[in-house]
Amino acid sequence: MDENLITLVCDYYPPSVGGMENHVNSLSRELSSLGYKVWVITRRVPYGVSEEIFYRNVKVLRLPSVFNKYSFYMRNYDLPLLDPLFLINFIKRFNGLCSKVMHAHGTLTITLSLYKTIFQKPALMATIHDYWPICFRRDLLLPNGEICNSKNDCSKCFECLSPYLDGFALLPSFIMKVNSDILDKVDHFIAVSSFVKNILTKRGFSNKKITVIHNWVDTSVFKQNYFLKNKENTALFVGKLIKIKGIEFLVKAVPEIVKEVPDFKLRVAGDGPLFYSLLKYVKNKNLMRNVVFLGKIPFTQLQKEYEYAKIFVFPSICPEPCPTTIIEAMASGLPIIASNVGGVPELIVDNFNGKLVQRMDSQALSENIIRLLQDEELSLRYRVNSLKLVKKFDIKMQINKVLKLYEKYS
């Protein structure tokens, strides 16, 4: 066994963009900077080479997959299924690989668990970034927008998947039962929030096999301009323009905000299928000067957006596990208004570094945005407290926790 080699296996990796991709990318780079040899193994994308040296000691290898046609463009719609083509190619390439540990991210955990069942080594760890082990939609939302509270019986899974199952009502229960048996081969799980851990244990996962390590950011790369007096009355949203992110409720809050703060601007960083309907709404309400759609922007520009915003707003309607964008906003010294869902309360202490509001409530969003824009003392207190709280989510501290688990289970 190569004590210096760590293998990270993930569904997606840059150039694919998302929270999990950024998480694995930052993990691989930090491990490399600490002197470890790191291999990142992921699905092949529709273009690019199958193997490349990506950063220092990090080697990125992209393998054929059953989901090759869809994985890059439809990453949010993957079902938690075994990927036999990926497994075959993984065995061909890495059966002799003596890694210290395999660390899986995403639904490929199922495939790696079967590999562990066959070969019994190396140690297998898995980070659970969302709810794929227990929810086919991965977001715990029912079709009507309510949060699913189903127990470990998949009683509501068919309701979500009925358009696709064509009468196979027992399929969700069967798949989850098979996955549960296979996932038992994972040596240890990392949950990105206590909320995720609690959900998993309620659905039958062993409490002893789960450690909570929240998402992280490199706090040193964010600037804090909270004493800048010429900041505009700007709120920032960062995320995909999809229903579960709650962007519609935020945009619909803008008319009420503008009545009290005429020069208010909402800057929207991200793109997605709701863009044209949101743009139509903004035009119809004559809000083109108040809502700015930035599209998908590079991280360097995003840093600037954080730096010059007055407020960060996170209006998600689904129980977000541990939003990295909130941690980035905290590292930028921003006061935050966020939906009281999922793992968000583990980042935002209500009335300390931000305000928690009920999801799907445009009025609550508008009232609290207006309050923060008009109350400089309250805003400053939230900003200072954000910087205090974010220290425990710094990348070096969090990855040190991961390394301790590597040592324990390898």
Map the helices and strands.
Blueprint: E1 2-10, H1 19-33, E2 37-43, E3 51-55, E4 58-63, H2 68-71, H3 84-94, E5 99-105, H4 108-119, E6 123-128, H5 157-165, H6 171-183, E7 188-191, H7 194-202, E8 210-212, E9 234-238, H8 247-251, H9 254-260, E10 265-269, H10 275-284, E11 291-295, H11 299-308, E12 311-314, H12 324-331, E13 336-339, E14 354-357, H13 362-374, H14 376-389, H15 395-409
Parallel strand pairs: 1-2, 1-5, 2-4, 5-6, 6-7, 7-8, 9-10, 9-12, 10-11, 12-13, 13-14
Antiparallel strand pairs: 3-4
Helix pairs in contact: 3-4, 9-13
Short description:
The protein is of the alpha/beta class and 410 residues long. It is built from 15 helices and 14 strands. The protein folds into two domains: 2-216 and 394-409, Glycogen Phosphorylase B (Rossmann fold); 219-393, 3-Layer(aba) Sandwich (Rossmann fold).
What does this structure look like?
The protein is an alpha/beta fold and 410 residues long. It folds into two domains: 2-216 and 394-409, Glycogen Phosphorylase B (Rossmann fold); 219-393, Glycogen Phosphorylase B (Rossmann fold, 3-Layer(aba) Sandwich), CATH 3.40.50. 38% of the residues lie in helices and 18% in strands. The chain contains 15 helices and 14 strands. The protein has helices at residues 19-33, 68-71, 84-94, 108-119, 157-165, 171-183, 194-202, 247-251, 254-260, 275-284, 299-308, 324-331, 362-374, 376-389, 395-409; strands at 2-10, 37-43, 51-55, 58-63, 99-105, 123-128, 188-191, 210-212, 234-238, 265-269, 291-295, 311-314, 336-339, 354-357. The strands form two sheets. The protein has an eight-stranded mixed beta sheet, sandwiched between helices. A six-stranded parallel beta sheet has the order 11-10-9-12-13-14, sandwiched between helices. Helix 7 links the parallel strand 7 (188-191) and strand 8. The radius of gyration is 22 Å and the shape is globular. The termini are close together.
